[in-house]
Amino acid sequence: MHVPDGFINAPVSVAAGVVAAGAVAVSLRGARRELDERTAPLAGLVAAFIFAVQMLNFPVAAGTSGHLLGGALAAILVGPYTGVLCVSVVLLMQGILFADGGLTALGVNITVMAVVTAVTAYAVFRGLVTVLPKKRRSVTVSAFVAALVSVPAAAAAFTLVYAIGGTTDVPIGQVLTAMVGVHILIGIGEAAITTATVGAVIAVRPDLVYGARGLTAPLKLRVGGELVDAPAAEPAPVAARSPRKLVLTGLATSLVLAGVVSFYASASPDGLEKVAADKGIDTKVEEHTAADSPLADYGVEGITDARASGGLAGVIGVGVTVVAGTGVFWAVRKRRTSETSPASVPDVPEKV
Predict the structure, then answer these.
(1) Residue 23 CB contacts under 8 Å (≥ 6 apart), including other chains
(2) Which of 158, 165, 230, 239 has CA atoms 20 to 30 A from the CA of 66?
(3) 258 within 8 A of 52, measured Cβ to Cβ
(4) Nearest partner of 268 among 73, 85, 66, judged by Cα
């Protein structure tokens, strides 16, 4: 659903950029409460994983494909504020290095693909886990529904933006119907990927899933014919709870997906591209500013073998994204630490 340059006029693009900048600023502040020494590297991994999986377009209808948006996955794993930042980092890397998503439309893409998906998904997710039994299965069921809803919500948001600032005169009702219809199908794929990933992390490290915190029901023991709460287990040492193994496994998985599996992704246009071509909203699309980038279109300039070119571009993308994302999240975490350290708290004179 990457919006290219030329779809949205300049005033609305600027307005969307202001909205996106404000959302990122709020998310930077909110992420300080979500990130700690364990989740900061996980957030960088989530950004890299989203980048990798977005390369894997899957068929959803005749001549149409879809790919992960990632807002729901990021919000559930690392928190809604950090989730917005994760997807924003991915979109920035894609726009600058790979000419995917217009640079003048970056504000639109962040607003639609990062903010709308993460906020919508997390609101639905929290609403469901609040009323469902406190079990792991409730978390995965809630993740499925939240991810499914987030994709057509993003499609509707794009249609609203296009209705305000679209560069072609087309029937908006038809665009809305087409966009939401195809993105419901894409949402099923998004939900499946999100549920599988959240379930895999919960299976090995439930303590690292932000959306699952505080949702585990206390263990019951039967004593004298009655169920009583089991004694709380002693917390594991910090070193033993390091996320290093999970991060390394996730990074290796991301590299394989982007470097190898991406070669077999569907070549059909994604939902937005298909609707744009069918409804005529792409007649004023502009060439990407970074079209001459050595990594444009997810290929490495000078390498003629398509498999090697695409695979290497994917590996580079994962590497750049994980470094950029981890750097941002560690900086946010460090800022929180400095603000809460004793040295940052002014001394209060004692009363005599």
Answers:
(1) 84, 110, 111, 114, 115
(2) 165
(3) yes
(4) 66
Round to whole Å and give the CA distance between 296 and 293: 5
Read off φ and ψ for residue 166, nearest 5 degrees: -65, 145
- Residue whose structure tokens are 């950090």: 82
Residues 208/42, Cβ–Cβ less than 8 Å: yes
DSSP state of 115: I
Tokens of residue 178, six digits: 């087409």
With b for 16 or more beta-carbon neighbours within 10 A and e for fewer, the 208-238 pattern comes to: bbbbbeebeeeeeeeeeeeeeeeeeeeeeee
Indicate the DSSP class of residue 301.
T
Distance (Å, whole) CA 231 – CA 175:
57
Judge whether 100 and 74 are in contact, CB under 8 Å: no
Contact 329, 40 (CB under 8 A): yes
Q: Which two tokens stand for residue 179?
A: 């966009």
Contact predicate 120/153, CB 8 Å:
yes
Picking from 91, 123, 102, the residue whose alpha carbon sits closest to that of residue 24 is: 91
Under 8 Å between Cβ of 168 and 281: yes
- Domain limits of the chain? 10-230+242-341
Tens of pLDDT, residues 172-227: 999 999 999 999 999 999 999 999 999 999 999 998 999 988 765 544 555 666 65
**Predicted structure pTM score:** 0.89
Q: Where are the alpha helices (DSSP H) in the chain?
A: 10-34, 39-54, 71-78, 80-97, 106-109, 117-131, 136-165, 172-204, 244-259, 271-279, 306-340
* C-beta contacts of 338-343 below 8 A and 24+ residues apart: 339/32
How far from the centroid of its chain's Cα atoms is residue 119's Cα? Answer: 11
**pLDDT per position as a tens digit, 133-163:** 988 899 999 999 999 999 999 999 999 999 9
